[in-house]
Design goal:
The protein is of the alpha+beta class. The two termini are about 50 Å apart. The protein has two domains: about 240 residues, Bira Bifunctional Protein, Domain 2 (BirA Bifunctional Protein, domain 2, 2-Layer Sandwich), CATH 3.30.930.10; about 90 residues, 3-Layer(aba) Sandwich (Rossmann fold). The structure holds histidyl-adenosine monophosphate (HAM). Histidyl-adenosine monophosphate binds next to helix 4, strand 6, strand 10, strand 11 and helix 11. Histidyl-adenosine monophosphate (HAM) binds next to helix 4, strand 6, strand 10, strand 11 and helix 11.
Length: about 425
């Protein structure tokens, strides 16, 4: 028999038994619920799009020279030879749905959020996977600097609520089209003499998409770039005013930031504000969230010039950082009572009691395997039940139950008739 294993760069999210401590599902539900509540508090509504799209949806804005499109996208042909791609990021897919379904007709400003798995064929390492999970928000229809600050504030306040420490907001502006054209020229004249010394990849980027060179990992390029002109010296008056606005609103909210003119982001669609948020704990892949403004991008889908801004945060990186920083997670949900029928004739009364307690919203579990008492108690312990209620043939005749507190090991006898009331009382008075 062939033994199947998970494909490279992927992981399972499991209720127990996960090799990676961060891949336990109760941690995920806690973080996802916190994100959902925060998004709703800030007035965002959920959107869900399919896991794959026509490949063109992604190449149009992310850019054909970007790593994501040129190297990392999982593309495939369907049976009718249509070229499809697994979603590598959320913004493009959201815009496709937004314009296809004419959501722009519904209101002026749209505040949307999503939870979605993303697929990128990257070299797997800690914090970098071939399927990762993002929570993202996108605001369409608002071009103001305050709008950028509102989403940055949402993200930071979410991280802070989870207890993350050492957060740094790295901020830049990649300008608008006039700023970028002017900057590209300046960067070109600066880099031209260094062309023979640049890495192979940067030499290609020099002619294809020069701004991508700023994203280089090659040490020889980094050295050359140290004295390169800064995009911030080439901002148009409009882009400059926007960037000043972002800074002043961040300051008004008491949010500290560091300007880093080298942040260009790996996706071409950005204009004006771009940002990354890092936190110590998980090594080099320490960008837990990132995003920015992409005003010219929606036009590529519809011809309509709608401004947009948003971010994505990787849920695995958030959980990993929380664990590395010893942030608190709520305890895993456990049954309050565990019913252990010690004979087949005892199942029925306990089955009814379990149902009655569940109807009262008291977490109750029953063993239906007919296993021996030791096995049942072992299971109650594994599930971390607060009480185990045992019913054997003798107790059944007497109309009683043994009620055992699993931690203190104290035991008391309660009548079957009063069991529901007694447990409800204990539930209400639990600490
Ligand atoms: P991104 O920077 O490519 O942006 O991804 C956003 C976040 O997803 C990263 O900061 C990181 O936490 C997480 N992430 C990315 N790739 C991986 C990976 N291979 N493994 C684990 N986590 C990863 C975007 O995708 C943009 N769509 C964000 C955005 C939305 N900008 C505007 N709106």
């Amino acid at each position: 028999m062939k033994k199947y294993t998970i494909a490279k760069g992927l992981f399972d999210i499991l209720p127990y038994g996960a090799k990676e401590p961060w891949a336990h599902s109760h941690l995920w539900s806690y973080v996802e619920n916190a994100l959902r509540s925060k998004a709703e508090l800030y007035g965002f509504e959920e959107i869900r799009t399919p896991i794959f799209e026509h490949a063109g949806v992604f190449s149009v804005g992310i850019g054909s020279t970007s790593d994501i499109v040129s190297k990392e996208m999982y593309t495939f042909e369907d049976k009718k030879k249509r070229l499809l791609a697994l979603r590598p990021e959320g913004t493009s897919a959201l815009l496709r749905a937004f314009f296809e379904k004419s959501l722009f007709q519904e209101r002026k400003v749209h505040k949307l959020f999503y939870f979605a798995p993303m697929f990128r064929y990257e070299k797997p390492q800690a914090g970098r996977y071939r399927q990762h999970h993002q929570f993202g928000v996108e605001v369409l229809g608002s071009s103001s600097a305050e709008q950028d600050v509102e989403i940055i504030d949402l993200l930071l306040s979410f991280y802070q609520d989870l207890g993350l420490k050492g957060l740094s907001l790295h901020l830049n502006s990649v300008g608008d089209i006039p700023s970028r054209e002017a900057y590209k020229k300046a960067l070109k004249s600066y880099l031209e003499p260094y062309l023979p010394k640049l890495s192979k990849e940067s030499t290609i980027r020099f002619s294809e998409n020069i701004l991508r060179i700023l994203d280089t990992k090659a040490e020889e390029d980094q050295e050359i770039l140290k004295n390169a002109p800064s995009i911030l010296d080439y901002l148009s008056p409009d882009a400059k005013a926007h960037f000043m606005g972002v800074q002043s609103h961040l300051e008004a909210l008491g949010i500290s930031y560091e300007i880093n003119p080298r942040i260009v982001r790996g996706l071409d669609y950005y204009q004006k504000t771009v940002f990354e948020i890092t936190a110590p704990g998980i090594g080099s892949q320490n960008a837990i969230g990132a995003g920015g403004r992409y005003d010219g991008f929606p036009k590529l889908f519809s011809g309509q010039d709608l401004p947009g801004t948003g971010f994505g945060t990787g849920i695995e990186r958030v959980i990993q950082t929380m664990l590395a920083q010893n942030c608190l997670f709520p305890p895993k949900k456990a049954p309050f009572v565990f019913f252990a029928p010690l004979h087949s004739s005892c199942i029925k009364p306990l089955f009814l009691l379990t149902k009655a307690l569940r109807d009262l919203k008291i977490p109750a579990e029953i063993d239906l395997t007919g296993k021996k008492i030791q096995e049942q108690l072992k299971r109650a312990n594994q599930l971390e039940a607060t009480y185990t209620l045992l019913l054997g043939e003798d107790e059944k005749k007497q109309g009683t139950l043994q009620c055992k507190h699993m931690k203190t090991r104290t035991q008391e006898v309660i009548t079957l008739q009063d069991a529901c009331k007694v447990i409800e009382e204990k539930w209400k008075n639990r600490s």
